[in-house]
From TrEMBL:
Key words, A-Z: Phosphoprotein
Lineage: Bacteria, Bacillati, Bacillota, Bacilli, Bacillales
Protein's organism: Paenibacillus helianthi
Keyword Signal: no
Residues annotated as domain Response regulatory: 27-143
Name the UniProt record assigns to this protein: Diguanylate cyclase
Length: 313
């Protein structure tokens, strides 16, 4: 059985790459029947801290592709059971959608096959015998591009805070962590005060600048394990793992002080900006995560109605 090699050829090595502090180990799926080449590639790639899965047949490769989640695929053209091009036709749609680069590695240099592979959407076609140095640089390049894309879909362009999509992911993660481990966390909502007035008085560009400065202030006041998100227009959220409401209040108070120390200048005038905050703490299992937003929002509403520039638990 060709696939008996899989156990032998695959093993976990260290993580490679980070997305905003979260370690990400990149998984490379090699679909190739050349056992010697595959062993050599595995060794070279694991040295670079990639995790490697091996398939010596098309059938096995397709199984791993659909059941696992490889981050990049190396695909041979001549395989024992189906042609690599047939495999390509089956996986290219999903691979494109999920930005999984496919690199054809082949001893088959016929121009029409190369053209066909490119026309199907393959980005790279590497000839055998493989130049390993060139190959490693190419892979790194593809992962860098992918990471940029991954970041771009979770980060708000104006402020650099995480976006609503990432807010939702983080909420899910923390709620399920709590269910598993009982690890508490706090959620703070922060809404800039009279922000419409800033826009109306000084213009939208100045308003944007205020949003950027506010975000900068927050990022300097939080820990790496905290997650800062733009929740909506001038409303922001801060997740603080392992933090009770009292400690969360200290963090938000500090942000309030730091922001108060900033002076903005526009139309030859100086002005200051404040925000109101609402905090909720999670110390029991949450079945409906939206409830937490509701609780923090209610506390925020109290801050708005009792003079603003304050935070309510
Ligand atoms: P309150 O103290 O009650 O929160 O009053 P407010 O004026 O801050 O709240 P309101 O919801 O009335 O206005 C929010 C404003 O934020 C309106 C909207 O145009 C502005 N805004 C939302 N997103 C952006 C943005 O990306 N840039 C700028 N410049 N303004 C924005
Ligand atoms: Mg082959
Ligand atoms: Mg506001
Ligand atoms: Mg608002």
């Amino acid at each position: 059985d060709m696939d008996a090699h899989d156990g032998l050829l695959g093993s976990r090595s260290q993580e490679s790459g980070h997305i905003h502090g979260m370690p990400i180990q990149q998984e490379i799926l090699i679909i190739d029947d050349d056992v010697e080449l595959v062993a050599f590639l595995r060794e070279s790639l694991e040295k670079q801290s990639y995790y490697v899965s091996i398939a010596l047949s098309a059938e096995r490769g397709l199984k791993i592709f659909y059941e696992g989640k490889p981050d990049l695929i190396l695909l041979d053209v001549l395989l024992p059971d189906q042609s690599g091009i047939d495999v390509l036709k089956q996986i290219i749609g999903k691979a494109k959608k999920e930005r999984i680069p496919i690199i054809i590695v082949s001893g088959e240099h016929a121009k029409d096959i190369q053209m066909y592979a490119y026309s199907l959407g393959v980005m790279d076609y590497m000839p055998k015998p493989l130049d390993i140095d060139l190959f490693l640089v190419l892979i790194k390049n593809r992962f860098d591009l992918k990471r940029e894309w991954q970041e771009s879909i979770i980060v708000d362009e104006l402020t650099g805070a995480f976006n609503r999509r990432y807010f939702n992911q983080t909420m899910k993660q923390l709620v399920s962590d709590f269910r598993r481990t009982g690890r508490i966390f706090s959620l703070a909502l922060m809404d800039l005060d009279f922000f419409k007035l800033v826009n109306d008085t000084y213009g939208h560009l100045i308003g944007d600048e205020v949003l950027q400065t506010f975000s900068e202030v927050v990022r300097h006041s939080i820990r790496v394990e905290d997650t800062f998100c733009r929740f909506g227009g001038e409303e922001f959220a801060l997740f603080m793992p392992n933090t009770d409401a009292g400690s969360a209040l200290l963090v938000v108070d500090r942000i309030q002080q730091q922001l108060a120390a900033r002076t903005f200048t526009a139309k030859k005038e100086e002005f200051q900006v404040t925000f109101s905050g609402g905090i909720t703490e999670v110390r029991e299992v949450v079945n409906e995560p939206d409830r937490l937003i509701g609780e923090a929002d209610q506390a925020l509403y109290v801050s708005k109605n009792t003079g603003r520039n304050r935070t309510t638990l």
